[in-house]
Write a structure and sequence with these properties.
Blueprint (H helix, E strand, L loop, with lengths): L5 H12 L2 E4 H9 L3 H24 L5 E4 L8 H7 L5 E3 L3 H8 L13 H16 L4 E3 L7 H11 L14
Parallel strand pairs: 1-2, 3-4
């Protein structure tokens, strides 16, 4: 979900693993020379999702790369084939905490709603079963720092991978 900390945690994980890092939203903005908000406003969510799928299809081919995606990427079944090139992590953060992180952020097109908390709940309800298909389900405590959450992810990785698949940077 938006505001869960995907980019922050992804950057930490990439550094700790000696991987590169890509945020698909940042790539989309570079590629289109438009903000995500502007793409939604001018071209609509459907066009945004098409661009998002194209970007994911290209970046997923790289190895040793941590990728942060938009929270809605799970909505298109096609994207799952790309996501499964790697390990999928769901950062399951409560709606209230998401809202507190996003309350002052006016760059989120899906939150331009009279009831942003209700919208977040609705989005999470719509996506929960899809997020549950992730390889790892991490539920951070509200007081956890980004480094602590990244450590939880790293600790959980061996439970879903064969030994020796991921090597940490020395």
């Amino acid at each position: 979900m938006m505001g869960a900390g995907k980019t922050t945690i992804g950057k930490i994980l990439a550094a700790q693993l000696g991987y590169g890092f890509v945020d698909t939203d940042a790539v989309i903005e570079q590629l289109t020379q438009k903000s995500i908000n502007r793409i939604f406003a001018e071209e609509g969510e459907t066009t945004f999702r098409q661009i998002e799928t194209k970007v994911l299809s290209e970046v997923c081919a790289y190895t040793r790369l941590a990728i942060s995606t938009g929270g809605g990427i799970v909505l298109r079944r096609e994207n799952w084939s790309y996501l499964h090139y790697g390990l999928i992590v769901w950062l399951d953060v409560p709606v209230e905490q998401l809202y507190s992180r996003l309350a002052e952020d006016n760059t989120r097109p899906l939150l331009q709603d009279p009831d942003p908390i209700g919208k977040l709940r609705s989005l999470l309800d719509e996506r929960r079963s899809l997020y549950a298909e992730a390889d790892l389900h991490i539920t951070p405590n509200p007081q956890d720092t980004p480094d602590a959450i990244a450590a939880q992810v790293l600790e959980a990785i061996p439970s879903v991978l064969k030994a020796g698949v991921i090597s940490r940077k020395s």
